[in-house]
Every structure is written in C-alpha cells, then in structure tokens.
Write a structure and sequence with these properties.
About 5% of the residues lie in helices and about 45% in strands. It contains 2 helices and 12 strands; from the N terminus they run H-H-E-E-E-E-E-E-E-E-E-E-E-E. Strand 10 (about 250-255) and strand 11 (about 260-275) form a beta hairpin. The protein is rod-shaped, with a radius of gyration of 53 Å.
C-alpha cells in the first residue's frame, strides 16, 4: 500500500503543484497582463495620469488651395474690331502691319491701250471690224499717284491721278490711204478714289475711282502718201470728259507700314475735243494693265 501511494504522488504534474505566491508591495498594482493575440492591434493605451481630464488639442484648419477652381470654359463673343485692332501690353492699338492712317501709293506697269475714235469730218473714214467707228491701239505704259486717309481700318478714301500712255498706234480707214499712223496719245484720269482692304492686316484689296479725264491725241499722218486736201492730216488735239478706274491686287508687307504687290487695272475715259481745223473728235479710250504698286499705309 505504501508503494501505490508513492507512485500516485509521482504522477501529479509539476505545474499542478502548489507554488509559493508572489509578494508585492501594498502600494503597487500588479503589472498589466498582455492580452492574447487576436489578429488585431491592441487598443491604444490611456493617456498618462498628467493628461487625464484635458481636452484633446484642436486640429488646425487646412489652408485653402492657392488657385481657385474655375468654371467651365465659355468662348467670348466675337468682335470684328479684335482682328483689326490688336493691342500691345500697354493697352494701346498695335498699328504695325495694319492698314490705317496716312495712305500714299505709287504704281507703274504695262499693258495695252485702245482708242475708239469718231470724227465729224467725213474725209476721215476710220473703220473697224464692225464698220461703225475706227480704233487704234498699241503697247501702253501706266502710272498711278494716289493719297488719302483711313477713317476705319482697311477703308481708304482719297484721290489719285491715273495715266495710260501709248507711244504709237495705227488706225485703218475705209478709203485711201488705208492706214493712219498716230503719234503718242495719253489718257489721264483724276478724281476721288476708294481702296478697300477687307482684312485690315492682310494684303487683298480692291480699288475704284471716278473723275475727270483728259485725252491728249497725237497727230495722225496718212501712211505711205502725202497729205492732201482729200487725204488730210488728223491734227493733234486735247479732249476732256469723264472716266472710271477699277483695280484689284495683293500686297506683301516689306516693312511695318510699307506694302508691295501686283495690281490688275482697267482705266477708261470718254472725251471729246476740237482740233485747230475745226474737226470734232470723240474718243472712247481704255487701258488694260498689269502694275506693281508700292504703298505706305
């Protein structure tokens, strides 16, 4: 029996045996026990005793962003003057490469000039293909001198002098001598004009003028024969009347206020006059021209 009791006592686990209790000072609390792991972070520890009862510090407000939020983009209303009057950083109109202000132009060119003629003297039987009136024509040289101002960008109002000069020409007749050789004649038109640039900073433009014309007719000599009473000389004379000018072209800027470019032009005048022999002449003169213009504008 004593042997069985000893075996039973030996089979009791060591950790089940009584251990002496740990002793702590009366004023000290036992250390906290670490909770078992549950897969989550443990709860935050309470604030130290000195902070108990104090309200937590207020969080400072976040500063507003430096750039304010913009609304949806809206296209500004189009104003035609925006294309004609861009401004520089100082707010002034940038007048460089803009058709405004003082306007000066000189042009020169070449082409062909016609003069349809009719005389009150029946001895001059000038003829043409329609046998109604004669004509003479030839190589022509043209000039232009114009000036004005610009009441609105791109619109020029002023005046000009436009000439067409033909150094020599021939006219046919129905009877002997058959041909008259004419010395130089010149058509000149002077009057108000308008020059319009639809794009005030561009190069396209159209021009028109009306006014008084003068036609200076050179002497006409019968070809191959001596002038007689029945084959008279066509005396030189001056005729006056009215006329028009139409042209269109393009200019390239070669400076802040200077443009250069080609022009297509038509100048036409109707005039009549009387020579020293008392013969009345009627003229319908026209020039078709290609010109090169230089414009300060």
């Amino acid at each position: 029996m004593a042997l069985l009791g000893a075996v039973a006592l030996a089979s009791v686990p060591v950790n089940a045996q009584e251990q002496p209790a740990a002793s702590f000072p009366p004023s000290a609390a036992p250390p906290p026990t670490r909770p078992a792991s549950t897969g989550q972070y443990p709860a935050a520890a309470p604030p130290p005793p000195a902070d108990r009862g104090r309200a937590p510090a207020a969080t400072p407000p976040r500063a507003a962003p430096a750039t304010a939020h913009l609304g949806p983009y809206q296209r500004p209303a189009f104003r035609p003057e925006d294309t004609a009057k861009p401004v520089d950083p100082d707010g002034r109109i940038d007048r460089r490469y803009l058709h405004d202000g003082l306007y000066l132009r000189f042009s020169g060119g070449i082409g062909i000039g016609y003069d349809f003629i009719d005389a009150s003297d029946e001895r001059f039987h000038f003829a043409s293909s329609d046998f109604k009136r004669g004509r003479h024509y030839g190589f022509a040289v043209a000039t232009e001198l114009a000036g004005g101002g610009t009441p609105h960008p791109g619109l020029v109002i002023g005046g000009g002098l436009y000439t067409v000069w033909v150094p020599s020409s021939s006219a046919y007749t129905r009877v002997s001598p058959g041909v008259y050789e004419f010395e130089p004649f010149q058509l000149a038109l002077v009057g108000p004009m308008v020059d319009w640039y639809p794009f005030p900073r561009g190069g396209w433009h159209a021009q028109a003028a009306v006014g008084l014309t003068s036609f200076v007719a050179g002497q006409g000599n019968p070809a191959g024969v001596v002038a007689t009473e029945t084959v008279p000389i066509a005396r030189a004379h001056t005729a006056v009347g009215y006329g028009i000018m139409l042209s269109a072209g393009y200019e390239w800027w070669v400076g802040e206020q200077i443009g250069v470019g080609p022009l297509l032009r038509m100048v036409r005048g109707w005039a009549d006059g009387t020579d020293e022999d008392g013969v009345t002449w009627e003229h319908d003169a026209v020039g078709y021209l290609v010109m090169l213009s230089v414009t300060y504008h």
